[in-house]
Write a structure and sequence with these properties.
The structure is a single chain. With 261 residues, this protein is α+β, with helices and mostly antiparallel strands. The strands form ten sheets. The chain has a three-stranded antiparallel beta sheet, with no helix packed on it. Strands 14-15-16 form a three-stranded antiparallel beta sheet, with no helix packed on it. A hairpin with a 5-residue loop joins β9 and β10. The longest helix is centred in the C-terminal third of the chain and has 33 residues. The radius of gyration is 27 Å and the shape is elongated.
Length: 261
């Protein structure tokens, strides 16, 4: 009975992790560029009372054996990098990557980080930065006399001024891709960092070498599907309740044993 208690307990802990992941997804249903996660599980080591193929008599073997599992654990939390829906804002510094890739940012301490959140702004010096003040890499400065900003699908940044209506190119926005983007380390604030699992970043011009092109005046919404997450929440809740019922049943069986005379 003790084995059943421990096995059911691992199931309850796994479903707690499952619900944590689902809750995080639902909480970020309106977060720009958010990528939903999926909890993945694996069974634990088995108690082998009889190995498959073990001799069971003269010239005979056990076809299946007796292997009793000892529970479950959370093996990984997988990021789903599917592109979210486009949200039109008509803000000239709002950008969406239509396809693969990330914007490259540099934090105030010099670290390179990556994001799908294309809600950019101008800081007091004219630099293009994100909402947390991280500057776009390579750095692009929009002069104060600029009256209009145009960003082409290939990432070329052009401005017009009151003195000249002829567009002037002032910079180039690149898109960074990874061999395994799901292996990036999530930092919060819509940022990711390179990890040993993601591979090295590859800098590309938008629309080239598999990188997505840029769309000005729109941003990428969260790829969370509320209906799917509600279904996952119900599944996690019912599985948790069933594991709790297994604990109660094992306890009742132990009580029966204790009451034997």
């Amino acid at each position: 009975m003790i084995r059943a208690l421990n096995t059911a307990a691992t199931g309850m802990m796994a479903q707690q992790d499952h619900l944590d992941v689902v809750s995080h997804n639902i909480a970020n249903a309106s977060t720009t560029g958010f990528k939903k996660s999926r909890a993945e599980f694996e069974d634990l080591i088995y108690h082998n009372l009889k190995n498959p193929g073990e001799a069971s008599g003269l010239n005979s073997i056990t076809p299946t054996g007796v292997q009793i599992g000892l529970g479950v654990r959370t093996a990984s939390v997988q990021k789903d990098m599917e592109m979210g829906p486009a949200i039109v804002t008509k803000n000239p510094l709002d950008l969406q990557i239509e396809g693969n890739g990330f914007f490259q940012l540099r934090t105030p301490d010099g670290q390179l980080v990556y994001t799908r959140d294309g809600q950019f702004k101008r800081d007091p010096t004219g630099r293009i930065v994100d909402k947390n003040g991280n500057s776009l890499e390579p750095e692009i400065v929009i002069p104060s006399e600029a009256t209009g900003v145009e960003i082409t699908p290939q990432g070329e940044v052009r401005i017009v001024t009151s003195e000249s209506f002829q567009p002037q190119t002032i910079g180039q926005i690149d898109v960074v891709t990874f061999v395994n983007p799901a292996g990036l380390k999530a930092l919060g604030k819509n940022l990711f960092a390179q990890s040993a699992s993601s591979g090295n970043p590859t800098v590309n011009r938008p629309g080239m070498n598999g990188a997505g092109a840029l769309a000005q005046g729109q941003i990428e919404g969260s790829n969370v599907n509320i209906v799917e997450e509600m279904i996952q929440m119900i599944r996690a809740q019912r599985a948790y309740e069933t594991n709790a019922k297994s604990v109660q049943t094992a306890d009742q069986m132990l009580q029966t044993i204790n009451n034997l005379r």
